Amino acid sequence: MDARMPSWNEYRYEKISRDHLQQVVALHEQCFPGYYLTQLGPSFLGVMYAWYLESPEAIAHVAVGEDGRLVGFVAGTVNGATYRKSLFRKAWRPMLLALGGRLVSKPALTLRLVAERKDLVWQAVSTILRRGSGEEREAMAGSDREPPTASLVSIGVRPSARRSGVGASLSELFVAEARERGCERVTLSVRADNVPARRFYEGMNWEEVTRSSKSYHGSVSITYQKELSDEQ
Ligand SMILES: CC(C)(COP(=O)(O)OP(=O)(O)OC[C@H]1O[C@@H](n2cnc3c(N)ncnc32)[C@H](O)[C@@H]1OP(=O)(O)O)[C@@H](O)C(=O)NCCC(=O)NCCS
């Protein structure tokens, strides 16, 4: 057996496509066990990642091995300020269906998760109700007028392929595309107890800017930022 781990440049890097969707969901579950979205189930995750296929604001890339298996993914948006609204506006029906299915298969867990993030439920409901209203169009247009701040929403690498530069390559692809598309900075949030990820970002010169005052699912979250104008 060849025990040598392939290096980052032995993988193919491509934009996400529908063919990758199932593997991205499976990799998300593997990379984020017990996390909030993972607990909402694979159908919900499938709806979330399908947004990246259909939305002009999305930035999403995957790393693929010679055998066609995914080893990593990165996903986010050129406009962090409108990400959730865009997601809720476009995908509320399949999200509701996925949530309904989860409610049937895991009622106690699903009710607990919904109760835990009433703020998100409220944001979803108000976005859906205000869809197409003048107020909503004005808010979206306002956020379009400023140079957008991109948001790196998630990144994951298959455990057996870690520490070979795949994560760094994917995050660089993300940052390069955000810069090309006119963003002046990129932000991301990570749980304070996710020490490997924090070392990863800090090693690539992401700067810590804020910590949440509230703890979500047992940990505060840290926001990191990268100014793109500083990058060559
Ligand atoms: C964070 C993650 C994407 C990093 O992917 P990766 O492919 O292993 O990262 P790289 O090999 O490109 O690492 C680049 C550098 O980051 C740092 N780094 C990466 N993982 C680290 C770890 N576990 N501990 C300390 N430093 C680490 C190192 O400096 C590393 O360089 P080196 O290996 O030459 O020392 C991966 O660990 C992962 O999928 N984690 C689970 C999901 C997650 O937490 N995502 C981030 C939150 S959104």
Helix/strand order, N-terminal first: EHHHEEHHHHEHEHEE
Number of strands: 7
Instruction: Supply the helix-strand structural class.
Output: alpha+beta
Tell me the Rg in angstroms: 18 Å
- Summed up, the domain count is 1
The CATH superfamily name is Gcn5-related N-acetyltransferase (GNAT)
Uncertain ranges? none
Average per-residue pLDDT, rounded, comes to: 90
**Number of helical stretches of at least 4 residues:** 9
Per DSSP, what share of the residues sits in E-state strands of 2 or more residues?
A: 15-25%
The largest pleated sheet is described as: 7 strands, mixed
Overall shape: globular
Fill in the CATH topology.
Answer: Aminopeptidase
CATH architecture level-2 label? 3-Layer(aba) Sandwich
For the record, give the distance between the C-alpha atoms at the N and C termini, rounded to a whole number.
Answer: 41 Å
Which CATH class is shown?
Alpha Beta
Q: Bin the helical content.
A: 40-55%
Bound molecules: coenzyme A
Strand order of the largest sheet: 1-2-3-4-5-7-6
Short description:
By secondary structure, the chain is α+β, with helices and mostly antiparallel strands.
Structural write-up:
- It is built from nine helices and seven strands, in the order βαααββααααβαβαββ.
- Helix 1 (21-31) packs across helix 3 (42-54), helix 3 runs antiparallel to helix 4 and helix 4 packs across helix 6.
- The chain has a seven-stranded mixed sheet with strand order 1-2-3-4-5-7-6, sandwiched between helices.
- It has helices spanning 21-31, 36-39, 42-54, 83-105, 107-116, 118-129, 134-145, 166-180, 195-203; strands at residues 12-15, 58-64, 70-77, 149-157, 185-191, 207-211, 221-227.
- 47% of the residues lie in helices and 20% in strands.
- It has a single domain, classed as 3-Layer(aba) Sandwich (Aminopeptidase), CATH 3.40.630.
- The protein is of the alpha+beta class and 232 residues long.
- Bound molecules: coenzyme A.
- Coenzyme A (COA) binds next to strand 4, helix 8 and helix 9.
